[in-house]
Design goal:
alpha/beta; 2 domains; 7-stranded mixed beta sheet
């Protein structure tokens, strides 16, 4: 028998959000995503869930009901992680007007489709995850209005740090919900603690621990001189903000925010991290397997909700339910 409470997972990605909820005893019954590697990864890790490989814009409650047999009001929780690119300051091309990011940007408007489906499904609890930039300027009031328009009077903007809930890396995210979230804190391990028992890359276990792409030749001498916490390069984001890349991880601290394949240098070796090492820094268990190309695997890890944070939220929601 699976978990007591049912979950529908929108913009399900590689399953980090769902992994935390399932570890807390929930049962994910339906997931929606149209990115082929994510669909394949989700099916491999949650074979009991029905994965709908469709564009959320084209999906309605009737479709979910007909395909999965999920009826309005019977879903306990809807979790959703719409794309954050239109809202993050790391994107130098995001629209200047915050409201345009939500209403005019075709990717940003996917957030509105998440709200629409939540209104149609009528779950007991919904939780939408995104970057803090989703609250910039008038966006917070706009989102509150949109959520109330689909039938939820109570709207909370919960700002949580993943490292406070068992994750070995830093990540600040907003969780918009119809219940106030106050999960139990449990500090995460350090980088060294998270990686210490991994075998060398190329070992047969755990999965996704193949040799990573080599550091570009032009960077190798400089990488060898990096000290813990130093960054090799910086890239420019929105408004001229600077963001470090090729960071030599400090084994005695938690990692900075996990983003992609060329984000971190190993604490003791002059190489990039493997997919599994990046996944460890996000709190994924080793049995969670990532499918698709190596770049797709790195992206799914970096775009996920860290499972330990998701589990802490799920445990709190279970007590409410």
């Amino acid at each position: 028998m699976r978990g007591r409470f049912t979950v529908v997972d929108l913009f399900s990605g590689g399953g980090g959000y769902a992994r935390g909820f399932e570890e807390a005893g929930f049962n994910v019954v339906v997931a929606v995503d149209n990115y082929p590697p994510a669909v394949k990864t989700y099916k491999a890790n949650f074979p009991h869930a029905l994965v709908i490989a469709e564009d959320v814009k084209e999906l309605s409650y009737q479709d979910i009901r007909d395909i999965a047999g999920v009826t309005r009001g019977d879903v306990d929780v809807v979790i959703a992680s719409p794309p954050c690119e239109p809202f993050t300051p790391a994107n130098p091309n995001r629209m200047k007007d915050p409201l345009d990011r939500l209403y005019s940007d075709p990717v940003g408007s996917l957030f509105l489709h998440a709200i629409r489906l939540i209104g149609e499904l009528k779950p007991k609890v919904f939780i939408i995850e995104n970057v803090p930039g989703i609250l910039e300027g008038p966006l917070k009031d706009a989102l509150r209005m949109e959520i109330r328009r689909v039938g939820f009077d109570n709207v909370y903007f919960n700002i949580l740090n993943a490292e406070d809930y068992g994750t070995p890396s830093e990540r600040i995210r907003v969780f918009i919900s119809n219940v106030e979230l106050k999960p139990e804190r449990r500090p995460g391990p350090t980088v060294g603690e998270a990686l210490e028992d991994l075998p060398p890359p190329g070992s047969s276990y755990p999965p996704n621990h193949d040799y990573p792409q080599e550091v570009p030749r032009r960077h190798r001498k400089r990488v060898a001189r990096l000290r813990w916490g130093d960054a090799l390069i910086y890239f420019t984001g929105a408004g001229g903000s600077r963001h470090p890349n090729y960071i030599r991880l400090n084994p005695n601290r938690r990692a900075p925010t996990v983003m992609g394949s060329s984000r971190f240098i190993h604490p003791y070796e002059d190489r990039l991290l493997t997919v599994r090492e990046q996944a460890r820094l996000m709190g994924f268990p080793d049995y969670h397997v990532f499918q698709g190309s190596r770049d797709a695997q790195y992206d799914m890890v970096g775009e996920a909700v860290p499972p330990p944070l998701a589990k802490a939220i799920a445990e709190y929601v279970a007590r409410i339910l």
